[in-house]
Amino acid sequence: MSDETRTLTTRQGHPVHDNQSLRSVGERGPATLENYQFIEKITHFDRERIPERVVHARGAGAHGWFEAYGKIGDEPASRYTRARVLNETGVKTPMFVRFSTVAGAKESPETERDPRGFAVKFKTLEGNWDLVGNNLKVFFIRDAIKFPDMIHAFKPDPVTNRQEAWRFYDFIAAHPESIHMVTWLKSPWGIPANYREMEGSGVNTYKLVNADGVAHLVKFHWQPKQGVRNLTTPQAQEIQGKDVGHATRDLYDAIERGDYPEWEFCVQLMSDGEHPELDFDPLDDTKRWPEDQFPLLPVGRMVLDRAPSNFFAEVEQAAFGTGVLVDGIDFSDDKMLQGRTLSYSDTQRYRVGPNYLQLPINAPQVQCPYATNQRDGQMAFYVDKGGESDHVNYEPSYLGRGLKEAPKSSKEYHQYIEGHLGRYQTSRAMDDYKQAGDRYRSFQDWEREDLINNLSGDLKQCPEELALRMIWHFWHADEDYGRRVAEGAGLDLEKAKALPPLPGRAAPHENLAHPTYTSGKAEEPAGVTVAPDQAAAAPNR
């Protein structure tokens, strides 16, 4: 597999000196528009497939509604946000939800070990709000410039057109922050039993902003009222032998019989700021916010009660974007969120067309008075009507014609930004192994056994040098974790432990490495039931 080493360049032929980090204002600051290297890379990636989605190609969708409780925990929701969709009670906001797998093609099995997409379009009275997330609460990487490389590694080999374990782990081995996600994905949590019985998460960090312009960091989560259920590999293989679309069938059958799937919408809140007292960066999407410190606070519920009438028109052409927010919900400087915000909508304009928002599945609801000066483009089939604005498609107009800016009714949110422009990697990377180890120790015995079997089987398909590096990572998360994977894969643990740190990275922090593992079944949270056949894993752990 070795080739002569060549220098990575842009498509213009410029040498790439840092392929790991966006340019940003300071280590935690926002990304800047002159990120030519990133923009070239991500926009090319967005256009790699037509017409199928590059990622999340296999999917199913359903219509429903959202109803806010008017509170966040015990507090009025208005204390934290001026977003009407989260404040007003008695209003059923129309919604469309698309569930999906990530790496597989459009006709791939729904039993694959793969994260599940959980994309929600709220059609609010103030315009659309898209919350585009996954079933798991963390992700593989924390900088969007790495996303094309990650998906390339997870997709089939460009020569053989086969997904290869060595390609997956070759990428993961160079990114210690991915070990947390891998620990989730290779456990029973990596194969949800269906779409109705899985959690959802916005994954990225956003901000809620109230009428006084005060912001709080926020994470969004969906908790299924049906409970959480996952599959082991043998169970998934048995189902796949009979039905490659079992999760879609389960969703539509439930709706048809009136057993409408329901989720409670919850948030985790944190004061706006850097939070140096935490052992992780709250903007790092490879980390979870511990729920004992930042509890899940209910804010509303979602019910799905109608299946699509046409798959292509409603599911395949449904288009979501992380930049589609309503007033009272704002961006954080999460670098994955900022990169996704460019990429997602850019992909939709390419895949569906520049007028994808004119399609009924994507357009705001009729009661929302939307109007723009955007005209023409491929597949335009109507023009916003507004009297004299038919002639005046620009703003402002000296004659006072056409569309006008909306009045400012609330205090603007202002974030102070100062820093040196450059490419930064987080200086808080020492925590990359801590949550992975915590997660391993939180699993029940059978979940750990399943995790070890899955990883061991994968590493047997990898070159020894790559497998040893992966064991090095697992051992730094938890000694028992690394030892058991090494034994299962038939590899020398001592040889793995003797490896040096990754080039350019410091050794894992001593306080985070080699924790003591106490065998025995993890205590099950009160009120959570695990199925006797071990097909279910307890939620919120």
UniProtKB/TrEMBL annotation:
<keyword id="KW-0575">Peroxidase</keyword>
<comment type="similarity">
    <text>Belongs to the catalase family.</text>
</comment>
<dbReference type="GO" id="GO:0004096">
    <property type="term" value="F:catalase activity"/>
</dbReference>
<keyword id="KW-0349">Heme</keyword>
<dbReference type="Pfam" id="PF06628">
    <property type="entry name" value="Catalase-rel"/>
</dbReference>
<dbReference type="InterPro" id="IPR010582">
    <property type="entry name" value="Catalase_immune_responsive"/>
</dbReference>
<keyword id="KW-0408">Iron</keyword>
<keyword id="KW-0560">Oxidoreductase</keyword>
<dbReference type="InterPro" id="IPR024711">
    <property type="entry name" value="Catalase_clade1/3"/>
</dbReference>
<dbReference type="GO" id="GO:0042744">
    <property type="term" value="P:hydrogen peroxide catabolic process"/>
</dbReference>
<dbReference type="InterPro" id="IPR018028">
    <property type="entry name" value="Catalase"/>
</dbReference>
<keyword id="KW-0376">Hydrogen peroxide</keyword>
<feature type="region of interest" description="Disordered">
    <location>
        <begin position="1"/>
        <end position="29"/>
    </location>
</feature>
<protein>
    <recommendedName>
        <fullName>Catalase</fullName>
        <ecNumber>1.11.1.6</ecNumber>
    </recommendedName>
</protein>
<feature type="compositionally biased region" description="Polar residues">
    <location>
        <begin position="7"/>
        <end position="23"/>
    </location>
</feature>
<dbReference type="GO" id="GO:0005737">
    <property type="term" value="C:cytoplasm"/>
</dbReference>
<dbReference type="InterPro" id="IPR020835">
    <property type="entry name" value="Catalase_sf"/>
</dbReference>
<dbReference type="GO" id="GO:0042542">
    <property type="term" value="P:response to hydrogen peroxide"/>
</dbReference>
<feature type="domain" description="Catalase core">
    <location>
        <begin position="9"/>
        <end position="403"/>
    </location>
</feature>
<feature type="active site">
    <location>
        <position position="56"/>
    </location>
</feature>
<feature type="active site">
    <location>
        <position position="134"/>
    </location>
</feature>
<dbReference type="GO" id="GO:0046872">
    <property type="term" value="F:metal ion binding"/>
</dbReference>
<keyword id="KW-0479">Metal-binding</keyword>
<feature type="region of interest" description="Disordered">
    <location>
        <begin position="500"/>
        <end position="541"/>
    </location>
</feature>
<dbReference type="InterPro" id="IPR011614">
    <property type="entry name" value="Catalase_core"/>
</dbReference>
<dbReference type="InterPro" id="IPR024708">
    <property type="entry name" value="Catalase_AS"/>
</dbReference>
<comment type="function">
    <text>Decomposes hydrogen peroxide into water and oxygen; serves to protect cells from the toxic effects of hydrogen peroxide.</text>
</comment>
<dbReference type="GO" id="GO:0020037">
    <property type="term" value="F:heme binding"/>
</dbReference>
<dbReference type="Pfam" id="PF00199">
    <property type="entry name" value="Catalase"/>
</dbReference>
<feature type="binding site" description="axial binding residue">
    <location>
        <position position="344"/>
    </location>
    <ligand>
        <name>heme</name>
    </ligand>
</feature>
